[in-house]
Amino acid sequence: MPSYFIIGGDGKQYGPISADDLRKxxxxxxxxxxxxxxxxxxxxxxxxxxxxxxxxxxxxxxxPPLPAGAAPAKTSGLAITSLVLGILGLFTCGIxxxxxxxxxxxxxxxxxxxxxxxxGGSGIALAGVIVSAIFLLMIPIFIAMLLPALAAAREKxxxxxxxxxxxxxxxxxxxxxxxxxxxxxxxxxxxxxxKTSLPLKSMFKCPAANPASQCDYAFNAKLGGMDENNVNPQxxxxxxxxxxxxxxxxxxxxxxxxxHLRGRIFVIAFADGHVEAxxxxxxxxxxxxx
Length: 290
Hints:
Mean pLDDT: 84
Order of helices and strands: EEHEEHHHHHEEEEE
Radius of gyration: 40 Å
Shape: rod-shaped
Number of strands: 9
Distance between the termini: 108 Å
Strand content: 5-15%
Helix content: 25-40%
Structural class: alpha+beta
Number of domains: 3
Number of helices: 6
């Protein structure tokens, strides 16, 4: 014997119920000829009066309230989960919104499907789909906002690495002077002279420079072989340069623009061992003569 599903006066779905129960409800006036129904397994809703097996039992009456004892369809847990995941997309850069969108679509399909197991909550599912879609569309915006910050952080990390490298080179040069009657190494071999004093050979390399070069720094040639005690502490000792291994000279060896902060910063180590990030406007004030 077929079972039936109906749409109550409150717009909600009830069932399945047997044909005998349905005829009883008709006799009690709890449903009428206009009540929407479908036979279990069917896909289309139609009025009870259009069902051939029920045409002879109707008397027109107002659309009734909920049938006594009938249970409304439960709100879909998928719909609720979809909305929650969509909202969480705000805090996860849209990652959870992808799952929220999928679950929301599934919940909407289930809510509209007739038959046993159909669930309510299509409105919540729709809200979950909309919210999730909004946050998914915002992912490119989040990325566009994040990329400049990541680039700035990367540049700052490279600058700090370069500062540390020149600090270690300055220390190595001063150690060489301590071991050679306070005299700095000859300018022409300064890399060879200090390489054994460095913890890592990579300290000759600036992370923002050409990775193929052996050394990304140069030595102030005017300090070559000089007594450390006769050198002004504020004299440039190590500076960034593309001239390569054992490069020595003056400001003419510096790159045309800085390697840091989008070309505005040059890293300089001084004769007293301290290191600074110097702006391009300050380069003309640096001391090169001991």
